[in-house]
Design goal:
The complex is a heterodimer of chains A (345) and B (105). Chain A has 345 residues and is α/β, with parallel strands linked by helices. Chain A has twelve helices and twelve strands. In chain A, strands 2-1-3-4-5-6 form a six-stranded parallel beta sheet. In chain A, strands 9-8-7-10-11-12 form a six-stranded parallel beta sheet, sandwiched between helices. In chain A, helix 9 links the parallel strand 11 and strand 12. Chain B has a four-stranded parallel beta sheet with strand order 2-1-3-4, with helices on one face. In chain B, strand 1, helix 1 and strand 2 form a beta-alpha-beta unit. The chains are: A alpha/beta (345), B alpha/beta (105).
Chain lengths: 345, 105
């Protein structure tokens, strides 16, 4: 059986979605099938180009494949007679981010038309798939709410669970993820103004643009936090990431409305407690229980500062929550074998 | 400098264009430390020309298309490269130098 994993590629950008697609290729190959990644280039700016890419997605052909597993917009629009969608996310500015500052479509001259076209395309062509799975309850709920399409959740496991280890509970809180506004690293920098303990903050991730890295560094400088906040800007390799996680006191994952988010899984695999916000969504719904496996607080600097202080000043609590997070991850029993089996069924 | 190398390919059938493009990418990284090099692979199919024409790869300073299939891509700083010009197997770094210089000029 020949299986094409179809995704969307934004050149020079690498994140959890790319890791997931590559790991899925390996998992499908492990079943004895042939698997190949087909990453269709995608660009959403200038805005009208988004519609060109939408149309192109309907024109690409992967007729050599017996089965297509499609992951992201607009790749999942590719026509194929035997297509299964494992939805990472839709084009969110046309949906839940429509009026949100992160969206960027609302208020633009052609924004309404683009939103309508994206929604029409999803309504018309997503149901072509034999089955639709999503990576989280968050993504399934959006699909039901906006498109009236039902789906089942198939949670992605870690790419390499054995890569993580539990080290000593050090003196820093770690925030991993690309340096983009939706990851809200800036909120954590603001929180550090209110932290009373000796906790430090390490932010590690690749900047989407030089301007975003500069803005974050400027925020640190403006608040005089250079001694307490370190920014490791750049792609963080898997080994370096595992080491950073192993020695952290806690991991803060404060993104806005994540589709999934590997960081809480990686933190749990390292037996670290996770601090998330009430609106973080994604896998945090599955993994983070307030006071049991981590702390859940409002997306507010003072609330986050209090959470950081609690875990810094009470080391046994950090250890207890971290151990419980690791147990919770084990209990979820996420496996690539099961993912591949379900997507090839 | 961000350099993008684009090829077309037939899924499940590794081709010479892809191998040549991978070698070119490695040569570019070696000759231009600090440059970001990425690859784009477009699946061949009956509507390839139109789909390629609709594809915007504007987020790079230089686009190198490898082979005829990718030549339909439009970019203000595009260079076409014939994979037949690739050095023989196991070439020295020096063998790639003139190719890299020409493509980045």
């Amino acid at each position: 059986m020949k299986v094409a994993i179809v995704s969307a590629q934004v050149p020079f950008v690498r994140g959890g979605a790319e890791v997931l697609a590559e790991r899925l290729v390996e998992a499908v190959r492990a079943t004895g099938a042939e698997a190949e990644l087909v990453a269709l280039p995608f660009r959403w700016h200038p805005r009208p180009r988004l519609l060109d890419h939408l149309l192109a997605a309907r024109l690409w052909r992967v007729e050599e494949a017996d089965r297509v597993i499609a992951l992201k917009f607009p790749g999942y629009l590719l026509p194929h007679p035997d297509k299964v969608v494992w939805l990472l996310h839709q084009h969110r500015p046309a949906y839940d981010l429509w009026e949100h500052p992160l969206g960027g479509l609302h208020g633009a001259p052609e924004g309404e038309a683009i939103r309508a076209a994206v929604r029409r395309a999803d309504d018309a062509w997503l149901p072509e798939a034999r089955r639709i799975h999503t990576i989280s309850r968050t993504v399934s709920e959006r699909l039901r709410r906006f498109n009236g399409i039902e789906s089942t959740v198939l949670s992605p496991p870690l790419a390499d669970p054995g890569a993580f280890r539990a080290g000593p509970y050090g003196g820093y809180v770690l925030s991993l993820g690309r340096l983009t506004p939706d990851k809200r690293h800036g909120l954590l920098v603001e929180a550090m103004r209110h932290v009373r303990s000796a906790a430090r903050l390490i932010v590690a991730g690749a900047p989407a643009t030089a301007a975003e890295e500069q803005a974050l560094r400027a925020l640190v400088t403006r608040h005089g936090l250079q001694d307490r906040v370190s920014i490791l800007a750049g792609w963080i390799g898997e080994r370096e990431k595992a080491e950073l996680l192993a020695d952290a006191r806690a991991v803060a994952f404060t993104s806005f409305d994540e589709d999934y988010g590997y960081v809480p899984l990686e933190a749990a695999a390292s037996a670290r407690p996770v601090i998330v916000c009430t609106d973080t969504g994604g896998v945090s719904d599955l993994l983070v229980r307030d006071g049991e496996t981590g702390l859940v607080c409002e997306p507010d600097p003072r609330a986050l500062a209090e959470a950081i202080d609690r875990l810094t000043l009470d080391r046994p609590m950090a250890e207890r929550l971290g151990a419980a997070a690791r147990e919770r991850l084990r209990a979820l029993d996420l496996s690539w074998e099961r993912v591949a089996e379900e997507l090839l069924r | 400098m961000r350099i993008l190398i684009a090829t077309t390919f037939v899924p499940f059938a590794p081709g010479t264009e892809d191998r040549a493009a991978d070698a070119l990418a490695a040569a570019l990284v070696a000759h231009r430390p600090g440059a970001a090099v990425d690859r784009v692979r477009l699946p061949r199919g009956e509507h390839l020309a139109l789909a390629a024409r609709l594809t915007d790869l504007g987020d790079c300073e230089r686009l190198v298309t490898v082979g005829a299939g990718a030549a339909g891509l439009v970019h203000p700083a595009v260079r076409s490269w014939d994979p037949g010009e690739a050095p023989d197997a196991a070439p020295s770094a020096a063998a790639w130098a003139p190719i890299v210089e020409t493509l980045l000029r």
